[in-house]
Amino acid sequence: MDGTAGDVTAYITSRDLDPAKMPAHVAIIMDGNGRWATSRGKNRLLGHTQGYHTLKQIVYESNRLGLTCITVYAFSTENWRRSGEEVGGLMALMLGAMQAEIEELIQTGIRVRVSGRLTELPADLREELQSATTRTEHLPGLIFNLAINYGGRAEVVDAVRAICKKVADGVLSEEDVTEGLIHDHLYSPDLPDPDLLIRTAGELRLSNFLLWETAYSEIYVTPVCWPDFDPDTLVQAIADFQKRTRKFGTVVEETIP
Ligand code: FPP
Predict the structure, then answer these.
(1) 151 within domain boundaries
(2) 27, 168, 218, 245: which has the highest count of C-beta atoms within 10 A?
(3) Is 148 helix (H, G, I), strand (E, B) or coil?
(4) How many CB atoms lie within 10 A of CB 8?
């Protein structure tokens, strides 16, 4: 396979999925690392390390499936409240992972992107992420968007602040403020809204993830903890998505079975 459209279609079909009904953007709340580790009598950080290995598999599977984008919730604006050991461990894990994976990501044609308040991250991690973004921005493959120090409310606050400044500077007026304008001031306005939001480890909540962008996303929750999630579970989630009827607020004629 050399990554042509025909190869991608053949791969999708080999996974028993319908190439005409693939989601473009899949967002993932990678939950359950801590539970996975503590249920085995291990330190929570081991769960995050195992979660990194899962993430690697999911990134390459998403690329093989020809998805446009995946956004993964790696660290929320609320995660700073965890112990210093866990926060420091997660920062070190993300830095080490980016350093270890960047060449393979480039060779595979994957674009790295980041959504979140990056100025508050440790300088070494911020610089590594910025470098990965710059080095991969011209590549043709999957957009691998890492939500780091990300909060859905913080994202809206940042957009509103940027718009208020433009209104104060006379660049925009109050009447210019529309849904489209707010969208244009989010962290990644060029990405399509997620078609499918996957949450692992069974909790039925959004946890401040992509609050604006998931307005019409289909939600799939699996009891599987993130370290046990794998390409087959991703394919199951997409197969479930392909059975849904998306309405976007309109009426769709359906017969009752
Ligand atoms: C939630 O599980 C998971 C996180 C807060 C961190 C997710 C991070 C990774 C999967 C590693 C990311 C690595 C890279 C390279 C970006 P939890 O700890 O809240 O689990 P729990 O609810 O069972 O305690």
Answers:
(1) yes
(2) 27
(3) strand
(4) 18
d(CA 44, CA 33): 7
Q: Is residue 65 part of a domain?
A: yes
Report if residue 1 sits inside a domain.
no
- Region 7-27: mean pLDDT is 98
Q: Are strands 25-29 and 69-76 parallel, antiparallel or unpaired?
A: parallel
CA distance 115 to 133: 11
Separation of CA 129 and ligand 1 centre (Å): 18
176 is catalytic: no
- Token reading at 1: 């396979």
63 occurs within a structural domain = yes
Domain that holds residue 217: 25-239
**pTM as predicted:** 0.96
- Phi and psi at 220, nearest 5°, equal -130, 120
Q: Which of 28, 42, 43, 48 to mutate to test the pocket of ligand 1 (most atoms within 8 A of CB)?
A: 48
What is residue 68's DSSP assignment? Answer: S
Cβ-in-10-Å burial (0-12, 13-18, 19+) of 9 comes to: middle
Domain count, the chain: 1
Pocket of ligand 1 (CB under 6 A): 30-35, 48, 51-52, 55, 74, 79, 93-94, 97, 146, 201, 226
pLDDT digits (tens, 9 = 90+) for 40-72: 999 999 999 999 999 999 999 999 999 999 999
Does residue 79 have an active-site annotation? yes
Pocket test residue of 28, 29, 31, 101 for ligand 1, highest count of atoms within 8 A of CB? 31
How many other C-beta atoms are found inside a 10 Å radius of the C-beta of residue 171?
Answer: 10
CATH number for 136: 3.40.1180.10
Going by C-alpha positions, the residue among 142, 141, 117 that lies closest to residue 129 is 117
Q: What's the CA-to-centroid distance between 31 and ligand 1, angstroms?
A: 6
